[in-house]
């Protein structure tokens, strides 16, 4: 029955726009260390009875899906959830979580509890779920779409058959993402075997700069501004990755009313 339920849930995930689907043992995911100061938690932190984590991936094809709106305190504190009075809205979080909540109804209809979140270690879950490889820029790279994927997780007390971890090194000797970063935030070398949070220098990375009251000049040059506190995440290391580029661009041209160049 659990195998049949898993396939039913895979179909439900596809119906809600997730083309990548994997299942991870909640206990095994809890054993994977994650970077500090990212508001991440183990699956049981969201559902004490957690047995499985369903990880789902959605193709992100447009820069506006990476839009971010922030509101910070006067002292420039980073507005994660533990900073009172601050707000942080990331478009792809909103999209993937909304879809995941609708998907979770299928799990609850089967008689199981759920908790929808992107604050488990989603990239590690995607790798353990057989969906991709953690690249040198710490994004989860999928064979077909490269890093052009965003993730949502549903923690459940259902015991589902788990997928085998992804083991193929998709990066090899490639260092294009490292060379492309204008602030040299990505430490050279493979991602495996590096202490969580040490592969990318948080304070050099352009993405966190959008959450500061006074971002550095490098961020100002590369981020797309839509309003005083609205922009899109820096995508330089993502766009430098050659994996999945052909399929991503093929879809991009198909989605758009006008060809891209």
Short summary:
The chain is an alpha+beta fold.
What characteristics describe this protein?
261 residues, 9 helices, single chain, 4-stranded antiparallel beta sheet, 10 strands, 17% strand, alpha+beta
Please explain how this structure is put together:
The chain has 261 residues and is an alpha+beta fold. It has one domain (2-255). Helices cover 29% and strands 17% of the residues. It has helices at residues 2-15, 26-30, 91-109, 122-128, 176-180, 206-209, 217-222, 236-240, 245-255, and strands at residues 20-25, 52-59, 67-71, 87-90, 114-117, 133-134, 140-141, 149-156, 225-227, 230-232. Strand 9 (225-227) and strand 10 form a beta hairpin.
What is the overall number of helices? 9
The residue ranges in which pLDDT falls below 50 over 5 or more consecutive positions are 77-83
The number of domains is 1
Widest β-sheet, arrangement of strands: 1-2-8-5
Helical coverage, percent range: 25-40%
**Which percent range describes the beta-strand content?**
15-25%
Backbone structural class: alpha+beta
Oligomeric form: single chain
Outline the biggest β-sheet. Answer: 4 strands, antiparallel
Separation of termini? 49 Å
For the secondary structure, the number of strands is 10
Overall average pLDDT? 87
Shape: globular
Rg, Cα atoms, Å = 18 Å
Topology:
Blueprint: H1 2-15, E1 20-25, H2 26-30, E2 52-59, E3 67-71, E4 87-90, H3 91-109, E5 114-117, H4 122-128, E6 133-134, E7 140-141, E8 149-156, H5 176-180, H6 206-209, H7 217-222, E9 225-227, E10 230-232, H8 236-240, H9 245-255
Antiparallel strand pairs: 1-2, 2-8, 3-4, 3-10, 5-8, 6-7, 9-10
């Amino acid at each position: 029955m659990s195998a049949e339920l898993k396939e039913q849930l895979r179909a439900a995930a596809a119906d809600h726009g997730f083309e990548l689907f994997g299942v991870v043992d909640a206990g095994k995911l809890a054993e994977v260390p994650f970077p500090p100061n990212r508001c991440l938690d183990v699956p049981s932190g969201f559902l004490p009875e957690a047995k499985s984590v369903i990880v789902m991936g959605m193709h992100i094809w447009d820069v506006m899906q990476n839009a971010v709106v922030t509101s910070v305190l006067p002292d420039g504190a980073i507005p994660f959830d533990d900073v009172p009075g601050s707000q942080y809205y990331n478009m792809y979080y909103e999209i993937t979580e909304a879809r995941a909540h609708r998907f979770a109804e299928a799990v609850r209809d089967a008689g199981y509890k759920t908790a929808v979140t992107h604050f488990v270690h989603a990239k590690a879950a995607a790798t353990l779920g057989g969906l991709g490889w953690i690249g040198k820029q710490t994004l989860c790279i999928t064979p077909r779409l490269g890093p052009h994927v965003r993730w949502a997780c549903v923690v459940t007390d259902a015991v589902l058959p788990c997928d085998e971890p992804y083991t193929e090194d998709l990066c090899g000797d490639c260092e294009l993402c490292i060379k492309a970063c204008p602030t040299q935030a990505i430490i050279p070398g493979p991602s495996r075997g590096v202490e969580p949070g040490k592969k990318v220098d948080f304070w050099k990375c352009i993405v966190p700069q959008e959450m500061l009251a006074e971002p550095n000049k490098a961020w100002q040059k590369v981020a797309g501004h839509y309003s005083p506190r609205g922009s899109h995440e820096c995508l330089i290391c993502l766009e430098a990755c050659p994996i999945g580029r052909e399929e991503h661009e093929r879809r991009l041209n198909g989605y758009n009313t006008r060809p891209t160049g």
